[in-house]
Records
---
Amino acid sequence: MDLLQRLARFLDRPLFPWKRLIVGFSVAQYFFEGFLSIRQYQILKERKPPRVLESEVSQEVFDKSQAYGRAKAQFGFVSSLYGQAQNLGFIYYDVLPKLWALTGIWLARCAPAQYTGEIMHTLIFFFTFNVITTVLNLPASYYSTFVLEEKFGFNKQTLKLWVTDMIKGQALMVVFGVPLLSAFLAIVQKTGNGFFYYLWLFGIGVQVFMITIYPIAILPLFNKLSPLEEGPLKIGVEGLAKRLEFPLKELYVIDGSKRSAHSNAYFYGLPWKKHIVIYDTLIEKSETEEVVAVLSHELGHWSLSHTTKLFGISQFHMFYLFTLFSVFINNRSLYKSFGFHREFPIIIGFILFSDALAPMDTVVKLLMNILSRKYEFQADEFAAKLGYSKELAKSLIKLQIQNLSTMNADWLYASYHFSHPILPERLGALGWVSDEKSTDTRKMDAEKPLKAADREL
């Protein structure tokens, strides 16, 4: 604790240029990520697929995949520039202190005296700021869904469903945000310099709560879960679960097709009671053994304790974040650099602290992606040892084609951005060999695309 206090005093220096430093971090990260995107864009101009895919992917599909990748990259260039301009504009025009002052005026005029403390003020500020950023990001969200994704056949949403989902999301933010943010602030206010420890315990409790409540109260607001019908697929999945001693409680099909052609399969739940969810689009576009192979990969993550290890890493990361936050929470020079001279709100301190920590977050992201790719190879190997090497390879190829996913990637771009290995790497690790292009590939060329969502396979 004494070490943290000494570090806090060291960093709280009058006239320290925190604003210039944070702006510098932001601009440097923007240009670095832009540099990576330019490198990847060159790969997206290639005219031939990787050697391992030459016998699996037609030239037409490869050209469409490259065109889709370039379209996403071009949109990324514009949206990242817009986001960077928005961020710098907020800083340059002192949006945070002005919005904090404005919401304080609203609170003083409209709320009874007993509701004018920092917690209520923070709630009004937070939700007002969220509405502003949501509105500012609507054009990019609309274009991504109804122009870019629509052009390549992925979007299944109607405008009404898009708006409804957005309203539901905002409503959930209020329902869960009010008690969670209030508790966060109360813990910091009432537990002294050691608040980071209590915040960490609170964070663990919130994660366990969300794991429990999400499938019961949140997921049904957006999708319908139905029990998987009796048949070969159910028999195959239940047999796989029994073989691995996976504590399967329920097996569901989710109606992902009502929003998009995205597809996936995943599991969730507490350690002693797990549920498997399979997208209806995955079932529609895949053979039974291919779906079971995909699930053997996913259950491989469970059997190899990847999910437990990642959960443990996330707890360590959360503890380290809250511990460092305790160093910055009373840093007056940081607050003053961004226009807060009389009031020093906890939420503002956390926002500025997060901005100051951006370089470290970049390093953490890189390391986590390296670990994640390692785990993906291990899960593939696990599925192969169960006898699903061929079926998993076929499923990955089929999804790659239906997704119009990028067939290749720049190594530096992939290292920084990708949590999963690219397909040629996975096929090589699985020992996939194909002498000729399958007739299924030719049939799929004319089908609508199927894209992996949430946790990629």
---
Amino acid sequence: MAARHDSQDDPSEAGSAGLPDFGDHIDLMTFEQILEMDDDEEERDFSKSIVFGFFEQAENTFKNMDASLDNKDLAQLSSLGHFLKGSSATLGLTKVKDSCEKIQHFGASKDETGTTDVADKELCLERIKKTMGPLKRDYNEAEIILKRFYHDS
């Protein structure tokens, strides 16, 4: 197991002096790129607005995904998965991004890697339903971590 750095002045491998351990939910290098846009490292108004805007966007997208599942609209599910994949990738939310990519592929009648066609629409819908649980759970965990980071929990 790698040694942990406790000093705020000692950057980790990712060069993150003073940032908490986000675990495997958030890619630190990607998230740092957002943080670099902040004018004030204490307030972090710019990055906070991006992150909290994402929370709103994700909640609305989840509602639309649930409705699209009810309507068995694979094309819309693929589109919504693609949309949320991009937003979550921008912030470094790796687990959320990975689940969204699977939903994008399933909605396009493909396997989870997007390489093999799947003719059975019901199977694709079932795979999306099974992916939604971990997606929402991973999103909730990332949301808690980020709200704690921004002292808004």
---
Amino acid sequence: MSSGRVRRTLVQLAAPGPAHRVFRANVRGYAQAAAVQDTKPPVALFGLDGTYASALYTAAAKTSSLDSTSKSLAALAEVFKRDAKLPLILNAPTLSPSDKSQIVQELQRHMGAQDKGETVKNFLKTLADNNRLGILQGVCDKFTTLMGAARGEMDLTVTSAAKLDNKVLQRLEAAVARSEYSQGKKLKVVSKINPDIMGGLVVEVGDRTIDLSVSAKIAKMNKLLTDTL
């Protein structure tokens, strides 16, 4: 089964003004600026994190800092992988302005000197000011999608109940690359683990999903039994 999951969303652009307020421009300003071909995100994303990721992409493109922004967000993505409690902290409703400021400073420390032009620093301040630090992990993921699309890459997400061997992933990549699903694009393999699928695989490439999981088979069997009885 395949399904289209990418929806057109509002593309937000930076507006003139103080650096830490570049993402506060009104919707009309964002939409007008999005018409500029060189700064428009290569694909439309959905969700609040997708909207913010698109805004960050445009702001970085306008300041020729896409590469440094991508590296900075990659560094932050690694922090999320190492610290399972970080999402809980960022989503805490009791965070004070002082707490948020300290969090932003700590996140900056992990980025090091990669954030040229302080594009990501300003973005983090905007998230903090708008109580949106909780979507940062999603923004990191969505920005990776945008950069991959800009480079002509396509994500091949393979979800399994347990960690897959690299040889298995390479065989899957080769098989999909030879199929019509790849659309002739370079594939970027993303391996995920979800014990809930119980076994088998869920393969996502582009806007297509191939669900070969045990949980899906059980769900189909249960539906068949329910419809029969």
